[in-house]
Structure prediction request, 365 residues.
Amino acid sequence: MATSRLKVVLDQERSYDIRVGCKLLENLGTHLRELSSAKKAVIITDSNVGSLYLETTKKALVEAEFEVYDLTIPAGEESKNIEVATELWDALAMLNIGRDGLLLALGGGVVGDITGFIAATYMRGIDFVQLPTSLLAMVDSSVGGKTAINISAGKNLVGSFYQPIYVAADLDTLVTLPDAEWDNGFAEIAKSAIIDGGEFYEWVLNNVSSLVAHDDDALKQVIVRALTFKARVVIADEKESGLRECLNYGHTFAHALEQVSGYSISHGKAVAEGMRFAARLAVEVIGSSNDFVKAQDDLFDAIGLSPVAESFSSDELFECMFGDKKVRGGNLRFVFACGPGEWKVEIVDPDLAKIYIILWEQARM
Prediction:
C-alpha cells in the first residue's frame, strides 16, 4: 500500500508533513533525519502502546543515530493531568534534554495531548512529533496543534496551540486496536463528514459496511479524507477564532458527559451522543429539520455508535457544560449542524439547555 502525504502550511515559515501508510514506524529515523538535527530523542508512550510499538520505534531512531530515551505514563485519560506533566518535565531535565531535543508522542490522543503540552512548555518550546496509534488520534488529535491537560474543573482547560514538526499515521498499528477505540475514531470521522458535507459525507454513507469491516483500503481512504478536511480547517483558522469552531460539533455535551461519567464513557461515544443531543436542540434553536436528526441517527447506528444507555445527573451535566472552554462571556455556545456541510454557532438560553438535558436524563431512567 502506497504512502499518502499531506502538507499543513500554516504560514511562510511553518509547515509540516503528514504521512499515512504502512511501516512508517520502521522507517521513522530516515524521515526524521531530514527534519531534525537533534541528538537526543525522547519517546513518550503509555503502558498499553509501549509494549507493542516502543521497541520498533526506538530501533528506527537508533539506526538514524539519535540518542534515544523513553518515558511511559499509565494508559487512560486520568494520566492527562498536572502531576504526570510535572513528572515528565522533571524527567526531561534529569536527562539533560535541551531546547534542541526532540519529543515523540507514541500512542493515542492522551499521549499526543500531554506530549504536545510538554513540548510547548518545556524550555519554552521544543520540537515534537506525533505518532498516532489509534484511529481517533490519526484523524483528529494528532493534527492541528491542540495540546492540553485536564484539571478538576474540566477537560483540556490548560494547554496551548503548538504544532508538531511531523505526523506519521502508521496503519499497521490499527491491527491491535480494541473495539472501543474503533468507536472513538468512527465518531470523529462521522463528525468531520457531517460538517464537511458534499463528497466526503456521501463517501462515508456509501462505504459504511467497508469501514465497519475494517477494510484496509477504505480505512486508508477515510483517514486521508478526514485529515484533508481537518488540515484545511486548521490552515484557515489555527487558533480557533472562527472556522475551526466547527470541529467542536457535539463536544459541548460530550465533554460534560465524559466528566460526569468519570471518563468511563469513551470520547467517541460521548461525541456521538453530543451530536445526537445537539441535533435535537438545533430543531428548537435554529429550526433544523427532524429529517436531519434521523439521517444522523441512522449514520451513527450503521457505523456502530449506539446511543448512550447510562443515565447521569442533569444538574451535574449542566454545571459541567458551563465549565467548558466554549462558554464565553457567560454565554452557553453550541455548534449546530443544520445538515451535511451546514453548521453555525449559536448562543443557547441556559433554561432551554437545561430542559433538554433533563429530557435526555429522563429518557434513560
